[in-house]
Design brief:
Helix content: 25-40%
Number of domains: 1
Distance between the termini: 34 Å
CATH class: Alpha Beta
CATH topology: Spore Coat Polysaccharide Biosynthesis Protein SpsA, Chain A
Structural class: alpha/beta
CATH superfamily: Spore Coat Polysaccharide Biosynthesis Protein SpsA, Chain A
Order of helices and strands: EHEHEHEEHEEHHHEEHH
Largest sheet: 7 strands, mixed
Shape: globular
Strand order of the largest sheet: 3-2-1-4-7-6-8
Number of helices: 9
CATH architecture: Alpha-Beta Complex
Strand content: 15-25%
């Protein structure tokens, strides 16, 4: 059984489906997927948590590949209110508050001792068992070195987590405390994770590749953009995995995903209104 953790709400349903369709295309082993979902209307009226309907749809994709796989959402709204809904970063204009939801993993008993965390905008090009089989017995986190870094600063979009050790060392507890006490210009969760992590392992870029390559296992499309405003840090457009026409044009290799996605949407119209 391979354990995975996502953090998505209804707004990210399409991105979640894209990730799952590609996941089961390459991985036939049983998957235990946990999704942290949050709904805090007093802070964000647009955020709606996953319900049983979204869970059943996601689970149906998994079970079509392996009947022993499962998908379960856990509402961590109250934990978020208690541990993260305050401090200098909660209204950060660069990143959604949702990026910090994963930092609550140590507080949720259902999260097993070893788990792979994945951003919703990840697309698989190989078997995730290659990542799962990496030994993390002596570290808290295994992740790729972030782009442009010369230090051991890891990117947090794909992480292999040793939750047993993390709960012993208090790594995520420290990360939550940093998020609510120290002002970050950007990279709220990633900076907090790297500061609080004492034992890490850097792994191959193929497990979290910012560009599509034939040998990459996971393509993290967070860096896929059309163009940049001249002499500025602003981008004209950022392509997301749920922007089907853009993705078909740029990555025709993923057309099998979008063909399946259109079929799913046609059969579940009530979830995509």
């Amino acid at each position: 059984m391979i354990n995975l953790l996502y953090c998505v709400d209804k707004k990210l349903l399409t991105q979640q489906l894209v990730s799952l369709i590609s996941l089961v295309h390459y991985t036939k082993e049983p998957l235990n997927i946990i999704n942290f979902t949050v709904e805090i209307p007093e802070f964000n009226s647009k955020g709606k948590k996953f319900t049983e309907r979204e869970d059943k749809l996601c689970e149906s994709i998994l079970k079509a590949a392996n009947p022993n796989s499962s998908y379960k959402s856990i509402d961590v709204s109250n934990l978020f209110r208690k541990y993260l809904l305050f401090g200098p970063n909660i209204n950060n204009k660069y990143y959604s508050y949702y990026v910090t939801v994963r930092l609550l993993a140590h507080l949720v008993p259902e999260v097993p001792d070893k788990v792979i965390y994945l951003d919703a905008d990840t697309i698989f090009n190989g078997d995730i068992k290659n990542l799962w089989d990496i030994d993390v017995s002596n570290c808290e986190v295994a992740g790729r070195r972030d782009r442009g870094r010369i230090t051991h600063y890891f990117q947090s979009g794909v992480m292999l987590l040793n939750m047993k050790k993390i709960r012993e060392t208090g790594m995520l507890k420290r990360a939550c405390e940093l998020c609510t006490s120290k002002k970050y210009f950007c990279y709220i969760d990633m900076s907090a994770l790297n500061t609080s992590c004492k034992y890490r392992k850097l792994i191959s870029k193929k497990f979290n590749s910012y560009v599509y390559k034939k040998n990459c296992i996971i393509h993290h499309v967070c860096a896929t953009r059309e163009s940049k405003f001249w002499l500025s840090k602003k981008w004209k457009h950022r392509i997301k995995t749920d922007e089907i026409e853009y993705m078909r044009k740029i990555y025709p290799v993923y057309n099998y995903i979008y063909d399946e996605l259109e079929r799913i949407k046609e059969n579940n119209k009530e979830l995509f209104n």
